[in-house]
Fold this sequence. Notes:
The structure holds two protein chains of two kinds.
Chain A: E1 11-18, E2 29-36, H1 43-53, E3 73-76, E4 79-82, E5 94-98, E6 104-107, E7 110-112, H2 113-123, H3 145-155, H4 162-166, H5 168-172, H6 178-184, H7 189-197, H8 205-213, H9 226-230, H10 237-253
Parallel strand pairs in A: 1-5
Antiparallel strand pairs in A: 1-2, 3-4, 3-5, 6-7
Chain B: E1 4-12, H1 16-27, E2 32-35, E3 52-53, H2 67-77, H3 84-104, E4 114-120, E5 123-129, E6 139-140, E7 150-151, H4 157-171, E8 175-177, E9 180-188, E10 191-199, E11 205-215, H5 237-244, E12 250-251, E13 256-263, H6 273-276, E14 280-282, H7 290-293, H8 303-318, E15 328-331, H9 337-342, H10 345-355, E16 364-373, E17 376-378, E18 391-393, E19 398-399, H11 411-433, H12 440-459, H13 467-481, H14 488-505, H15 519-543, E20 559-560, E21 566-571, E22 580-585, E23 603-604, H16 610-623
Parallel strand pairs in B: 1-2, 1-11, 2-8, 11-18, 17-19, 20-23
Antiparallel strand pairs in B: 3-7, 4-5, 6-7, 9-10, 10-11, 12-17, 12-21, 13-16, 14-15, 15-16, 21-22
The complex binds flavin-adenine dinucleotide, iron/sulfur cluster (2 copies) and FE2/S2 (inorganic) cluster (FES).
FE2/S2 (inorganic) cluster binds at residues 62-65, 67-72, 82, 84 of chain A.
Amino acid sequence: MNKDSQKAGRRLRFEIFRYNPEDSMSRPHLDTFELVETPYMTLFLALHRLREEQDPSLQFDFACRSAVCGSCGMLVNGRPRLACRTLTRDIAQTIRLHPLPVFKLIGDLSVDTGTWFRAMADRVESWIHAKLPFDPTAQEARMDDDLAAAIYEGERCIECGCCVAACGVANVRPNFVGPAGMNRIAAGMNRIARFMLDPRDERSGDEWFDVVSSDDGVFGCLGLMACHDICPKSLPLLEVYAFLRRKMLAAALAPRSRAQL
Amino acid sequence: MNPLVTTDVLVIGGGLAGERCAIEVAAKGHDVMLLSLVPPRRSHSCAAQGGMQAALANCAKAEGDNPNVHFLDTVRGSDWGADQEVVRIFVDQAPSAVRELAHFGVPWTRVRPGKNSYFIKGQRVEIEEPENKAGLIMHRDFGGTAKWRACYAAAGTGHAVLYAVDSEVVRLGITVRDRTEALALIHEGGRCWGAVVRCLRSGRLAAVLAKATVIATGGYGRIYGQYTTNAVINEGTGAAIALDTGVVPLANMEAVQFHPTGLMPSGILVTEGCRGDGGYLLDKDLHRFMIDMEPQKQELASRDVVCRHMMQRMREGKGVETSYGPHLWLDLRHLGEQHITTKLREVHEICLDFLGLNPVRDLIPVRPTQHYSMGGIRVNKDGHAYGMKGLFAVGEASCWDMHGFNRLGGNSLAETIVAGRIIGGRVTQFVGENSLSVSTSLAARSLAQAGQHIQGWLERAGSGPSVYAIRDAIAETMIAKVGIFRTGSELEQAVDELYTQLQLVDRAVLRSKVPGMNPELTFALRLRGFARLALVTALGALERTESRGAHYRSDHPARDDAHWLRRTLARWPQGVTKPMLSYEPVGLIDLPPGHRGYGKAESIDMKESIEDYNATVDAAWRREGAQETIESLGARMHWGAWRETQQPPQHKRAS
Ligand SMILES: Cc1cc2nc3c(=O)[nH]c(=O)nc-3n(C[C@H](O)[C@H](O)[C@H](O)COP(=O)(O)OP(=O)(O)OC[C@H]3O[C@@H](n4cnc5c(N)ncnc54)[C@H](O)[C@@H]3O)c2cc1C
Ligand code: SF4
Ligand code: SF4
Ligand code: FES
């Protein structure tokens, strides 16, 4: 292949966080490994080789190995990244790996993002709130393609947790929906924005107000945008927050129907 | 989790098929527990990029489409290996399944009225989309179909659909146990009562007792090692635990689909949509060889046909040689930056991220790669497994059998939703009529057995091979000898090699015995099933002395409808060292076997009449253990409806 002969043969040094909570003998520490770099080596490839050739107890998570499933978030030299999509040639020769903070540690580099995201989904009621049931005989409701594309933009979040791990507020406030939540409310915030945009969701501005405007929502966010820079899917978290703040302000100023809720 | 849990329905697998099925059951008020190796949204369904087939006929190039045309495409695509009644059920319900997903929140790409520019057979074409279709769900072209039919959500259809469906799971409050693996089915006397499961956080075991158990564990492409587009978790444990019962057959395991465009060297899929949108395949001389091979369909012929031409090209020395083996090129450059960075954005990103190539300027190195498992747990049209009451299977793990020997692109996402819904309904009815009358001692026995199995691994010491060495040896055999071109002698070697590896499983030694989930032990527990699936696949391929769909025997190049219009069933009785193969008719035939309209036309005709063939189906299926269905055999056929399609059918009579 064109660049087949790229810098193969660099000797990489891995410093990996180790701790197995299921093992009473285990204490948090760093282990060091070495590996010779091969062409197109990603951290997916490297970690499997380390496990299969050097330390079979090493825990980490991968599923799709193609940056679509969100399983493999970890701190690579201190920065949250998707390991499967990290080419070793793009990083320093010494590679320090830690599990993502904020999430519960399962072991070594593996953390429990699933539980966190399910709780977030429950909190922001991350589903379409439709008043009418599905009618199997009816043609689909029409939607402008630009709107569909805009909703898809927010929907691209893969719940990898990188933004949440990067977020200072999420690190100190356990109920903060986090940037991911904000996307659904950015992956929390992001999530919310995605549903607000969707006309099929019949929640009013008021119904959103509780989640979004509390200190656990958009007003708890310091706006330093660590999350925006970190997101491997380049979700426009910055714009998401601006959108949420505008919406919430509008809801706060509008005559209250909240009393009836 | 408690060591003993009960529920109405245990669904093993949190991909689209499992989740859609769980929704149907939970919506009727039954208690459901859903298991998954990973949080459900990380299931492999999320990786589907291209689209989901449903004949809504919304755009100009879909005009005249309807379920009949979809039926024709699917049966032809299957090379007549499919159960035509199941295909009928599927095509009739696909449109409402897609619309239901819109209701769940999927942001389907919509029709833009007015002039749109598309690439068709490599040419930029301007097409006027009618005003009266504005905002309806859009279609794109996908290999092997007469009309544009694939509904899609930009370049992330599987992701968008899985998130929407999982949102429903959350809304309904369904109990989800992620990082939990089913290790064995709990069964007795042909009745399934749940599964023994292992927590992948702690390594602890539990028994889940259920009135009905549904296997929805997806494909098992990892038996082909790196040469697969499947996720690393697609190791086939679901099919394996069904095989372990000794009575449930796996069907058509030799029917393995390869995808023309797996990225070199990782196997990551580059979507069919690339060719659908007008991408070219080039050889090392940058020649567009598909024009010579398939003047009509060109790059858009069905997957098995394109794969074979690609392999042939590489065998002729026209591949680009690299240290990872030969590959060909996928060329998207003429589609333009705008198109590539929006409509094919995920492909653009994958090339940049994993290879450092930009498809706007660079060619993409691709080769055919294992992609889809048409075979699986044999079920009747209600999803009920042969030979085991209370066990159901759905999605890629099953052989329901709408794909026969070749699945059309976009038909499997649609299958997960359509079948999930239907089979969910059947499961609901089943649990309404049955109670949980199982002794806890059966659960205790099953649990103890699994415990001993684990203990066995932990205790075994010495100098045996590593579990990973066995895995790699199996994968090498599979890709080299049970791949795209198959011959009797290579398949015999493959079967021998796989037996050897299977025997080695019992001698393999763990090097890590740490408490907790222990990743090496976790894999070791899958290894025997993994080897058995590989073996059953190779054996099925060896015995099937014909070529049909994705199964291509160079030494038997013709499709042989006289002998092989049959489905392979493989069982592995307990205590026996070899699997047993038997055969059944594919199902009722409405559309007579004919030429697919692409690929080679060579075939041997049926000897009996279709009427005689059809008359044997019911009894033959029952003999193989098919359960009673809610509706009688053939109830959903629309005999002859395919004749109403506007397409002049190109069938020769099967006299
Ligand atoms: C890269 C790629 C792209 C594709 N693109 C398309 C496309 O564009 N259109 C299309 O129609 N089809 C496409 N397909 C095929 C389609 O995506 C799959 O066939 C379909 O998504 C399978 O869904 P499923 O629910 O059956 O299985 P999966 O989504 O694979 O889910 C399996 C589930 O089972 C769980 N599981 C497995 N074993 C166990 C166990 N022992 N215990 C507990 N849980 C278990 C897993 O955790 C997972 O939740 C594509 C496939 C691939 C590989
Ligand atoms: S901008 Fe807000 S949400 Fe993002 S990292 Fe900073 S505090 Fe967290
Ligand atoms: S918003 Fe981005 S970083 Fe955050 S979870 Fe989603 S994909 Fe990951
Ligand atoms: S393994 Fe799926 S995102 Fe990395």
